[in-house]
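Q: Structure tokens for this one, please.
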Amino acid sequence: QVQLVESGGGAVQPGGSLRLSCAASGFAFDTYYMTWYRQAPGKERELVAGISSAGSTNYVDSMKGRFTISRDNAKDTVYLQMTNLKPEDTAVYYCNAMKFTFSYWGQGTQVTVSS
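A: Here is the predicted structure, written as tokens:
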């Protein structure tokens, strides 16, 4: 059974940091492209960052320098380190695994940035 389980979300003040994790199971994690998305209330889901099976990364320009995506293929886990968080980063964060026509989603983890 394929599973992606996100964790690490929570409430943080502006300028704070969080590290999200997404633990995968049920598929060959190390062969999949992994991506973090987010969806703010009333908005469409948007891409945050992606990482290839070999570790090449891509970021949305607005998040470069603040967010870092990484993966540990030995632990079947992808991470999103978020720093200098802003209120506009408030959203549900989802991880996605993609390979060819296969695409799997996690249930999401809430991140709230507020003073």
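A few notes: The chain has a mean pLDDT of 97. The CA atoms of residues 55 and 78 lie 11 Å apart.
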